[in-house]
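Standup notes, protein team

Yesterday: finished cleaning the Gnathostoma spinigerum set.
Today: Globin domain-containing protein structure.
Blockers: none.

Input for Globin domain-containing protein:
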Amino acid sequence: MARLTGFCLLAALLGICLATEDAEHLKKIRHLCLKSLEKVKPGTDEEHLKHGTGIYTTMLAGHPDLRHYFIGHENYTEEQIEKSAFFKKQGQKILTSIHMLANSYDNPAAFKAYTRDVVDRHERINVELESKLWKEFWDIFLEFLAKHETVDDETKAAWHELGTKFSEEAVKHHHIDHEHLKHEREILMKSLHKVEPGLNAHGIQNGLDLYKVMLGGHPNLRKYFKGKEHFTPDDIQKSIFFKKQGQRLLVAVHVLAASYDCPDTFRAYIRDLLERHERIDVHLEADVWKMFFDEILLEFLAKKETVSDEEKKAWHELGHHFVDETLDYLVFKKNGSNITANYQNDKGDSSSKQRNHRKLES
């Protein structure tokens, strides 16, 4: 027993020593990284703005294979990058992120959380980076850093370690998100198995029933159906218009569910739906779309079979992303050719492709 107690004590002491050694190592890496950043801090004056744009001149000049990520800015010269409102803003964002990562390196939980936030920010604006780029960026950053001071081997090793930890967490987080989307897609598709569209009586009836739920339970939406505001359920049942529209609406719901694990396709289809509505002069606010997914569709599905909490949650999530894309689209339409005031002096920012596929933002 005494021997066992002694062994446990030794193991505990060894664990404490290893934990202390690891903590000291993280502090050392943090110190080395922060020390190397003293000459490249973010800020609002011209000198500090150049620190941020300098990262992008290094990136685009030395790595032309990355230029295609910057839609509308692919052919910018170093001078254009330095003067660009877009790159000044992005330069500060990326430089701030680098400082935050260095500062938090001795706090693994905070470091990983901030890494995941960086990935999420990219995904919220539809930026899909190859996994290898999360790691390769740090070599580019060291090239930039070397233009401002001598970077010794110890400092290079520190940044390589930080970059490796960052890329591991970024890739892991992105993978988890993708698996989550695949899982949610399966739930969504399962919930639709009894309400498929089709030219047979069953398929047509599914579409008609969806409109009966919509107009019967939500009379505030009747105003969107000019000439049919006072239709009864029997009128809807006999209407050629609602037979056609019912199929279109059901197909749209199925396509959204089927494409949910492919964000680019999912978002593109949403924009296509919004444009189709605008072409027939139907302008729906984001709140209407939210109501459709949070209430109307679930009420309709519940009339066909029991809707589980898991299925409700999945449809709420899809609806949330649908509304987010709708709001982005409405902002784009409102601003016209000027996507944001910050970018209005830069060429190329007026296209929807630029708005939805801007790359390498941090």
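Follow-up from PR in the comments: The radius of gyration is 27 Å.
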